[in-house]
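Notes from hallway chat w/ T.B., transcribed later so I don't forget. T.B. wanted the structure written out for a chain they're using in a teaching module, and asked if we could keep both sequence and structure tokens in one place. Agreed to drop them here.
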Amino acid sequence: MKRIDFHSHILPKLDDGAENLAESLKLLKILKKDGVDIVVATPHLYLHRDSLSTFLRRREESVKILTEAMADAEPDSYPEVIIGAEVYLMSGVQSLPLDKLCIEGTDYMMLELPYSPFTTAFMNSLANFLNFCDVKIILAHVERYFDFSEPERVNEILDYGLMSQGNCDSIINSRTRKNTLRLIENGDISLLGTDLHSVRMRPPHFKEAEQIIRKKLLDGVFENMMSTAEKVLNLKEPEN
């Protein structure tokens, strides 16, 4: 079983994540110490800050810097890094070639929803986006939206049957732990991510979250989450 961190801001000097190469490498070493084999890099795309072409160019430059540094290290010093994006849902996103924003080697794109009440107008626009979207969607840190909107609205989105990712910190935090574990137990969250940003602001806590899942939920739940992550990344053949 591979341990897969499905949400991170590990790429240097790209968004509000790792400030520089040294911090990226330090965060990768922390993940490796926690037993993480693969980390999915999901830098923010906010269309009001970057055009798609600018984002892709900046991402490519950041990946190159990190890849070259990792290549100079001892084998197995760091987890494998797979490139993706965290796309904030706003006007204009529906017109983008979304395949360029999918996690590499897959047809899955991570989508971040607004941190504001989910109005009827928003629910209609989300449904319209999903109906015409030509890629598969993973909802980022879905447990967070309960803090901003009515639970009924969030549950309505969960009923769409989309794949969702949950944050390690939401499992560790005593205020959010119960609801996040409930979502995992119900199958509403099937992917786990640190959503790491920096050594100080949001360091990775993958191992601690794994221990809580193993302690609080049934045997095999954590393994199932990692197996699902492998299948999404096309590392493992789906069961018939």
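Follow-up for T.B.: DSSP finds eight helices and nine strands in the chain. Might be a good example for the class.
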